[in-house]
Amino acid sequence: MPASPDHLSVTLNALADPTRRAILARLSLGETTVNDLAEPFDMSLPAVSKHLKVLEKAGLISRGREKQWRPCRLEPEPLKEVDMWLAKYRAMWEARLDRLEAYLTQLQAAADTPALPVVKDKPDDTPKDDRT
Predict the structure, then answer these.
(1) CA distance 60 to 54
(2) Other CB atoms within 10 Å distance of the CB of residue 54
(3) Which of 46, 69, 73, 106 could form a disulfide with 31 if both were Cys (CB 3.0 to 4.6 A apart)?
């Protein structure tokens, strides 16, 4: 029997689909109905409902019930978990980019520094050998 996926995997799976990310973007503006969420998409209402079920299973949205109105709302906690997971990688890349920037600054400073002029020695007073 396969192990159930961890919560982060479920969240990332839900975020993998562009339609679901668009739904979350819309819900970040405030709660709304399924019909309003479905409006911009060229798909059936049942297809949108399937996307909503994936988002709900991941804990990214919740659905309420107020009389005839069934609002959907964004639930930010799973996104915070993803952000915390990504923060480790963000810190690594920022450190690497800082080192690259320092190296490039060093290279630029070396390129901007004029080369020291070549100083020729005084003519040599020793006689040259004419046997060439």
Answers:
(1) 9
(2) 19
(3) 73
Task: Provide the token pair at 89.
Answer: 């990688």
d(CA 102, CA 38): 49
In order of 5, 21, 83, 109, 113, the CA distances from 74 in angstroms are: 22, 11, 16, 50, 56
Residue 82 class from Cβ within 10 Å (0-12 exposed, 13-18 middle, 19+ buried)? middle
Task: Please state, for a pLDDT cut of 70, what percent of the chain lies above it.
Answer: 86
Angle at 41 (CA atoms; ends 36, 42), nearest 5 degrees: 130
Q: Which residues of 1-22 are buried (b: 16+ CB within 10 A; e: fewer)?
A: eeeeeeeeebbbebbeeebbee
Q: What is the DSSP letter of 7?
A: H
Model confidence at 81, in pLDDT bands (50, 70, 90)?
very high
Cα separation, 70 vs 61, whole angstroms? 12
SS3 of residue 61 by DSSP: strand
Phi, psi angle pair for 121, to nearest 5°: -70, 160
